[in-house]
UniProtKB/TrEMBL annotation:
<dbReference type="GO" id="GO:0009055">
    <property type="term" value="F:electron transfer activity"/>
</dbReference>
<feature type="domain" description="Urate oxidase N-terminal">
    <location>
        <begin position="8"/>
        <end position="286"/>
    </location>
</feature>
<feature type="transmembrane region" description="Helical">
    <location>
        <begin position="127"/>
        <end position="145"/>
    </location>
</feature>
<protein>
    <recommendedName>
        <fullName>Urate oxidase N-terminal domain-containing protein</fullName>
    </recommendedName>
</protein>
<dbReference type="GO" id="GO:0020037">
    <property type="term" value="F:heme binding"/>
</dbReference>
<keyword id="KW-0472">Membrane</keyword>
<feature type="transmembrane region" description="Helical">
    <location>
        <begin position="234"/>
        <end position="251"/>
    </location>
</feature>
<dbReference type="InterPro" id="IPR010389">
    <property type="entry name" value="Urate_ox_N"/>
</dbReference>
<dbReference type="Pfam" id="PF06181">
    <property type="entry name" value="Urate_ox_N"/>
</dbReference>
<dbReference type="InterPro" id="IPR036909">
    <property type="entry name" value="Cyt_c-like_dom_sf"/>
</dbReference>
<feature type="transmembrane region" description="Helical">
    <location>
        <begin position="86"/>
        <end position="107"/>
    </location>
</feature>
<feature type="transmembrane region" description="Helical">
    <location>
        <begin position="157"/>
        <end position="177"/>
    </location>
</feature>
<feature type="transmembrane region" description="Helical">
    <location>
        <begin position="20"/>
        <end position="38"/>
    </location>
</feature>
<keyword id="KW-1133">Transmembrane helix</keyword>
<feature type="transmembrane region" description="Helical">
    <location>
        <begin position="183"/>
        <end position="202"/>
    </location>
</feature>
<keyword id="KW-0812">Transmembrane</keyword>
<feature type="transmembrane region" description="Helical">
    <location>
        <begin position="257"/>
        <end position="278"/>
    </location>
</feature>
Length: 410
């Protein structure tokens, strides 16, 4: 009873954590995307009183039944307003809820979701320590690069950061399960993004406000540094979002060259985001935006989709002795009963599971025959049994896959 109650509590923590993470993530990304859009749509003001006030750009918009006029000052207004809105709790809340989920799911159940003995034989403490080292080390390396002389050349800096991130993606896939590696890569980028807010963007803004209140000039380095990190954050966003949803798509993280898939999907995300950012400034080019980055992103996606097309799988014969169709199906049921039904049953018996994952049931012949396509994909990619917790043997896996390839005779 206590184990069942513990699993029930775990499910509620996971549900509420995910819900909070999605809500705060929408708030953070929405605000981030809006300000990128706003900054890129600013036009030089035409009214003299606005120019005299020190406004460098403005944009008019209509939304929700009203007209809005957003203005950006070249430096700061003559007098700070009594109420100044800040944007940072959305970022902090997103990271905190995401780290909570990482600890709950991937650290708390590292043997299920993070460790794959066929990739690297890691103990649970070692896997968690390495994962945390990636998160902290990734930020330190990234921040050092940005603060180095390389940081004065945005293109060169971007190229080096890309190489470092791709190396991290490869390293994670060499150490952890595909699912765990992808989530950790997203967590790494997300950690860099929120650290940019906490350590650079907000301190830069506080310094600007402080300088204005003390009637002194603001060092322009703070504005440049904050702007640079904000630009990086907007390009990290789509790769992070892909990593966060990737656990639903085994075809990506369970691919033979899953690191290459992760890198390619990240490149596609950056290219597509770059096109949208450029499109925001189309007014500077007579309303035209080059489609090259968008095409590159879409072609990359198409290339990944083509590369992951399932191949015709051939398996060796499982037995030299002919068996009847009925006996063959009975043998398959026995294997599934031992290796799959502990999770995929109305009431799972495997510790930590209170319901069948994704609602997939394999406890009856009817349920088995209704899921043959999914079973072939999951078994061929070695995603299931998850973490091989039920210790399916290679002979058993081969036998079930051969039966599925033959059309699941019954």
């Amino acid at each position: 009873m206590s184990a069942m109650l513990g699993s029930y509590l775990f499910d509620w923590l996971s549900l509420l954590g995910r819900w909070l993470h999605v809500i705060t993530g929408i708030a953070w990304i929405g605000a981030s995307f809006y300000f990128v859009w706003l900054d890129n749509h600013l036009l030089p003001p035409t009214r003299q009183e606005v120019l005299d006030a020190g406004v460098g750009g403005e944009v008019w918009a209509v939304h929700g039944g009203g007209f809005y006029n957003a203005q950006k000052y070249k430096i700061a207004p003559a007098a700070l307003p009594p109420t100044l809105h800040w944007f940072y709790w959305e970022a902090y809340s997103t990271w905190l809820s995401g780290f909570f989920l990482l600890c709950l799911m991937y650290f708390g159940k590292a043997e299920v979701y993070l460790i794959d003995p066929t990739v690297a034989a890691l103990s649970k403490p070692a896997a968690i320590a390495i994962a945390l080292a990636f998160l902290a080390g990734g930020w330190l390396i990234y921040d050092t690069l940005c603060r180095s002389p390389l940081g004065r050349n945005d293109r060169a800096l971007g190229a080096v950061i890309a190489v470092v991130m791709f190396a991290a993606a490869w390293g994670l896939c060499e150490l952890f399960s595909g699912r765990g590696a992808y989530i950790l890569f997203g967590a790494l980028l997300g950690t860099i993004m929120v650290a940019n807010v906490f350590f650079v963007i907000i301190p830069s803004q506080r310094e600007m406000v402080k300088a204005k209140r003390e009637n002194r000039l603001v060092d322009p380095v703070y504005g440049r540094r904050g702007k640079q990190r904000s630009v990086h954050n907007t390009y990290f966003t789509l790769p992070v979002l892909f990593a966060m949803i990737s656990n639903h798509y085994a075809m990506t993280y369970a691919a033979k060259y899953n690191a290459a898939v992760l890198i390619a999907m990240s490149i596609a995300g950056v290219c597509i985001r770059a096109w949208f950012v450029a499109r925001h400034k189309a007014h500077e080019r007579g309303g035209k935006t080059s489609p090259l980055t968008l095409l590159l992103g879409l072609l990359t996606l198409a290339g990944v989709a083509f590369a992951l097309v399932p191949a015709n799988v051939s398996v060796p014969a499982t037995s030299a002795i002919p068996v009847s169709t009925q006996q063959r199906f009975a043998d398959i049921q026995t294997i599934l009963q031992q290796r799959c039904v502990p999770c995929h049953a109305p009431t799972p018996t495997l510790a930590g599971f209170t319901a069948a994952p994704n609602g997939v049931l394999l406890d009856t012949p009817e349920h088995i025959l209704a899921r043959t396509v999914q079973m072939q994909t999951q078994l061929s990619t070695r995603v299931m049994p998850i973490g091989n917790l039920t210790q399916m043997t290679e002979a058993e896996r081969t036998q079930v896959i051969a039966w599925l390839i033959d059309g699941a005779p019954h």
